[in-house]
Protein backbone atom coordinates (compact mmCIF):
# COMPACT_ATOMS: atom_id res chain seq x y z
CA UNK A 1 0.00 0.00 0.00
CA UNK A 2 1.13 3.52 -0.69
CA UNK A 3 1.27 6.07 2.11
CA UNK A 4 -2.01 7.66 1.00
CA UNK A 5 -3.71 4.24 0.84
CA UNK A 6 -2.45 3.37 4.32
CA UNK A 7 -3.80 6.63 5.73
CA UNK A 8 -7.12 6.24 3.93
CA UNK A 9 -7.71 2.61 4.92
CA UNK A 10 -6.35 3.13 8.43
CA UNK A 11 -8.65 6.10 8.94
CA UNK A 12 -11.60 4.17 7.57
CA UNK A 13 -11.06 1.20 9.89
CA UNK A 14 -10.48 3.58 12.81
CA UNK A 15 -13.79 5.29 12.02
CA UNK A 16 -15.66 1.98 11.76
CA UNK A 17 -14.23 0.85 15.11
CA UNK A 18 -15.16 4.07 16.89
CA UNK A 19 -18.69 3.93 15.47
CA UNK A 20 -18.89 0.38 16.86
CA UNK A 21 -17.56 1.63 20.24
CA UNK A 22 -20.22 4.34 20.30
CA UNK A 23 -23.02 1.92 19.41
CA UNK A 24 -21.91 -0.57 22.07
CA UNK A 25 -21.77 2.08 24.80
CA UNK A 26 -25.18 3.47 23.83
CA UNK A 27 -26.54 -0.07 23.86
CA UNK A 28 -24.99 -0.53 27.31
CA UNK A 29 -26.61 2.67 28.61
CA UNK A 30 -29.94 1.42 27.27
CA UNK A 31 -29.43 -1.97 28.95
CA UNK A 32 -28.64 -0.23 32.25
CA UNK A 33 -31.82 1.83 31.94
CA UNK A 34 -33.89 -1.29 31.26
CA UNK A 35 -32.41 -3.14 34.23
CA UNK A 36 -32.57 -0.20 36.64
CA UNK A 37 -35.67 -1.45 38.50
CA UNK A 38 -34.25 -4.97 38.80
CA UNK A 39 -31.08 -3.72 40.49
CA UNK A 40 -32.81 -1.27 42.81
CA UNK A 41 -34.38 -4.12 44.77
CA UNK A 42 -31.00 -5.15 46.13
CA UNK A 43 -28.45 -3.58 48.45
CA UNK A 44 -26.23 -0.80 47.14
CA UNK A 45 -23.28 -3.21 46.84
CA UNK A 46 -25.22 -5.74 44.76
CA UNK A 47 -26.77 -2.91 42.77
CA UNK A 48 -23.38 -1.38 41.89
CA UNK A 49 -21.89 -4.80 41.14
CA UNK A 50 -24.66 -5.54 38.65
CA UNK A 51 -24.30 -2.17 36.97
CA UNK A 52 -20.53 -2.56 36.73
CA UNK A 53 -20.66 -6.12 35.43
CA UNK A 54 -23.05 -5.14 32.65
CA UNK A 55 -20.92 -2.09 31.81
CA UNK A 56 -17.64 -3.98 31.83
CA UNK A 57 -19.17 -6.76 29.75
CA UNK A 58 -20.17 -4.29 27.04
CA UNK A 59 -16.76 -2.57 27.14
CA UNK A 60 -14.87 -5.87 26.83
CA UNK A 61 -17.15 -6.98 23.97
CA UNK A 62 -16.58 -3.68 22.16
CA UNK A 63 -12.80 -3.91 22.47
CA UNK A 64 -12.76 -7.56 21.47
CA UNK A 65 -14.83 -6.82 18.36
CA UNK A 66 -12.47 -3.99 17.40
CA UNK A 67 -9.45 -6.26 17.76
CA UNK A 68 -11.16 -8.76 15.45
CA UNK A 69 -11.88 -5.98 12.95
CA UNK A 70 -8.20 -5.01 12.90
CA UNK A 71 -7.18 -8.66 12.67
CA UNK A 72 -9.42 -9.12 9.64
CA UNK A 73 -8.11 -5.91 8.11
CA UNK A 74 -4.50 -7.01 8.48
CA UNK A 75 -5.18 -10.55 7.28
CA UNK A 76 -7.68 -9.96 4.48
CA UNK A 77 -7.32 -6.35 3.32
CA UNK A 78 -3.60 -5.72 3.81
CA UNK A 79 -2.67 -9.40 3.46
CA UNK A 80 0.04 -8.77 6.03
CA UNK A 81 -0.24 -12.13 7.80
CA UNK A 82 -0.89 -15.69 6.72
CA UNK A 83 -2.76 -16.96 9.79
CA UNK A 84 -5.51 -15.66 12.06
CA UNK A 85 -3.35 -16.51 15.07
CA UNK A 86 -0.61 -14.11 14.02
CA UNK A 87 -3.09 -11.42 12.93
CA UNK A 88 -5.00 -11.53 16.23
CA UNK A 89 -1.78 -11.60 18.27
CA UNK A 90 -0.38 -8.59 16.44
CA UNK A 91 -3.73 -6.76 16.67
CA UNK A 92 -3.96 -7.28 20.43
CA UNK A 93 -0.37 -6.11 20.96
CA UNK A 94 -0.90 -3.07 18.74
CA UNK A 95 -4.45 -2.14 19.86
CA UNK A 96 -3.42 -2.23 23.51
CA UNK A 97 -0.21 -0.33 22.59
CA UNK A 98 1.95 -3.00 24.21
CA UNK A 99 3.87 -3.40 20.97
CA UNK A 100 6.13 -6.30 21.88
CA UNK A 101 8.21 -5.80 18.74
CA UNK A 102 8.54 -9.49 17.93
CA UNK A 103 6.54 -8.92 14.74
CA UNK A 104 7.69 -6.00 12.59
CA UNK A 105 5.76 -4.99 9.52
CA UNK A 106 7.19 -3.91 6.21
CA UNK A 107 7.04 -0.24 5.19
CA UNK A 108 3.93 -0.83 3.09
CA UNK A 109 1.83 -1.62 6.19
CA UNK A 110 3.39 0.19 9.16
CA UNK A 111 1.29 3.35 8.95
CA UNK A 112 -1.88 1.33 8.34
CA UNK A 113 -1.24 -0.83 11.41
CA UNK A 114 -0.42 2.20 13.56
CA UNK A 115 -4.05 3.25 13.16
CA UNK A 116 -4.93 0.17 15.24
CA UNK A 117 -2.94 1.69 18.12
CA UNK A 118 -4.71 5.02 17.69
CA UNK A 119 -8.02 3.19 17.68
CA UNK A 120 -7.15 1.41 20.91
CA UNK A 121 -6.03 4.60 22.66
CA UNK A 122 -9.21 6.42 21.67
CA UNK A 123 -11.48 3.47 22.48
CA UNK A 124 -9.88 2.89 25.89
CA UNK A 125 -10.27 6.59 26.66
CA UNK A 126 -13.93 6.58 25.67
CA UNK A 127 -14.57 3.38 27.65
CA UNK A 128 -12.83 4.79 30.71
CA UNK A 129 -14.90 7.97 30.56
CA UNK A 130 -18.06 5.88 30.21
CA UNK A 131 -17.20 3.68 33.21
CA UNK A 132 -16.36 6.76 35.30
CA UNK A 133 -19.71 8.29 34.34
CA UNK A 134 -21.50 5.07 35.30
CA UNK A 135 -19.72 5.01 38.67
CA UNK A 136 -20.29 8.70 39.39
CA UNK A 137 -23.93 8.38 38.48
CA UNK A 138 -24.32 5.32 40.67
CA UNK A 139 -22.40 6.63 43.67
CA UNK A 140 -23.84 10.13 43.76
CA UNK A 141 -27.53 9.55 43.09
CA UNK A 142 -28.12 5.84 42.61
CA UNK A 143 -27.58 4.39 39.17
CA UNK A 144 -29.37 6.34 36.46
CA UNK A 145 -32.09 7.67 38.76
CA UNK A 146 -34.27 10.42 37.39
CA UNK A 147 -34.15 13.48 39.58
TrEMBL record:
TM ranges: 6-29, 50-75, 87-105, 112-135
Keywords noted in UniProt: Membrane, Transmembrane, Transmembrane helix
Every Potassium channel domain range: 67-136
Gene3D superfamilies found in the cross-reference section: 1.10.287.70
A family per Pfam: Ion_trans_2
Domain of life: Bacteria
Presence of keyword Metal-binding: no
Name of the protein in its database record: Ion transport 2
Lineage: Bacteria, Pseudomonadati, Pseudomonadota, Alphaproteobacteria, Rhodobacterales
